[in-house]
């Protein structure tokens, strides 16, 4: 199979779909790889690094999209990239289309086979291709939150860990999954007073066993949210419903009760955000103020630490890329229900239940679609 790797064009997105070491693995399996020139200059990989790994170098993205049977990216395709996608071409990347009906429509119109990292599952019900970026985003959320709390960034002038004689900041984390656990770890490491809210008692027990009495936990019902959020200096939105738009746990009225200069970092913004006041931002203009609260809602947070993120993402995605390339997408998806869970759009059809329901559009189960689709299609 000819695998293509274009340069990411989303604002300040420096990650790359395949590192040189991943390219070398594909080449060792007998595949060809076409990489856009300068694809990973920001993370320290040169065109020569890719050549030495066995890749060919394309002069631009158009050449990559025109030739490749499978496109491996990081972020959802932008309109200019959608225009280059071809019918039957495999796209393997983060999509987050449940919160983006326009992108869903564009992907359907191309006739491509769009497989989303964020809905691929494993035997334990986890999301193995979302996890590494969730780990990074959770840790980054505390870094950017702590920075934004400084006066020079418009914050209330609070040091997250406090000092002797001065209380530390209060950090509330909405969601106890991978993002939330990593955010809690970082915030406690900096000395903050941390509480995590979740609706899974099993998850709260696991967090309690993991972190001990330093971490406070609470069930995420409306009363707890409305009691804890207004007294928090930093709130981190770490909510995830696989494939679906994020629930709006924070009403505008609750946000308005937070102290002026407090900070809300919405890691769930890729899926539409978990507050009524959330809207997507970029690394160029990462924050805005709503109801006196500074909102940080960058949709590609891990792109700010692109070398770490590229390596972490590649560690997770490479086995699946190899599976798709070695067997072809139809055989690979038919054989592996967990990889099949990643199929969001195929030949103009939505093929993921949560996506279809979030978009309020017709959908067909991926297994049914594959059973009914002729191999030659």
Task: Give a description of the structure.
This protein has 15 helices and 15 strands. Helix 1 (20-28) packs parallel to helix 2 and helix 11 packs across helix 12. The chain is an alpha/beta fold. The mean pLDDT is 95. Helix 8 links the parallel strand 8 and strand 9. It has an eight-stranded mixed β-sheet, with helices on both faces. It has a seven-stranded mixed β-sheet with strand order 9-8-7-10-11-13-12, sandwiched between helices.
Helix content: 25-40%
User: What does the overall shape look like?
Assistant: globular
Biggest sheet, strands in spatial order?
3-2-1-4-5-6-14-15
Question: H/E series, N to C?
Answer: EHEHEHEHEHEHEHEHEHEHEEEHHHEEHH
By secondary-structure content and strand pairing, the structural class works out as: alpha/beta
- Strand coverage percent: 15-25%
| Number of helical elements | 15
- Ranges where pLDDT stays below 50 over 5 or more residues in a row are none
Distance between the termini: 17 Å
Find the count of extended strands (DSSP E, 2+ residues): 15
**Rg (C-alpha, Å):** 21 Å
The largest β sheet comes out as:
8 strands, mixed
Topology, element by element:
Blueprint: E1 2-5, H1 20-28, E2 32-36, H2 47-53, E3 56-58, H3 61-67, E4 70-72, H4 79-82, E5 90-93, H5 101-110, E6 113-116, H6 131-148, E7 170-174, H7 178-189, E8 193-198, H8 201-211, E9 216-219, H9 222-228, E10 234-237, H10 252-256, E11 263-266, E12 287-290, E13 293-296, H11 306-327, H12 329-335, H13 337-340, E14 343-346, E15 349-350, H14 353-359, H15 366-372
Parallel strand pairs: 1-2, 1-4, 2-3, 4-5, 5-6, 7-8, 7-10, 8-9, 10-11, 11-13
Antiparallel strand pairs: 6-14, 12-13, 14-15
